[in-house]
Amino acid sequence: MSVHWVRLTIVWRGPLANQPDVCLIWRQHGQRNPTWTPEEDVVVTEHYPKTDKWTILEALPNRSWNMVYQRALTLGLHRSAYIQDPIPDNITVDDLNVFPDRAVALAIISEASKQRVYNLWLYPADTGELARVLEHQNSNMGG
Prior knowledge:
Layout: E1 5-10, E2 21-26, H1 38-47, H2 53-59, H3 65-74, H4 93-96, H5 102-113, E3 118-122, H6 127-140
Antiparallel strand pairs: 1-2, 2-3
């Protein structure tokens, strides 16, 4: 689904199962991305020195800030301004886009990244519905 999220779907055969079970599994280190393309290098070269983190990550949705930073070092680039943004350095926009609500996605990913192993069973098997269920749970717990 993204650099860090893998979707596992189990389709049960039998009279008791009327829908599949779906689990999202967070891989702490994620998959390795392919080599950088010339187009991605243009984005890094043009935006890394002065543009905010979100803009750069939106332009490179399958790259984390750590990846962008490492690429910028390789290209000999430096930032002229440090801008604090509320996104962990090791996640991608594609990781966030697994869930329809960015605030819910950030909360889930923040929790997942604290643990060595993390999985999230979806009931029902739709991330939009899951976001609504989690928001309901959080409001009932005062969170």
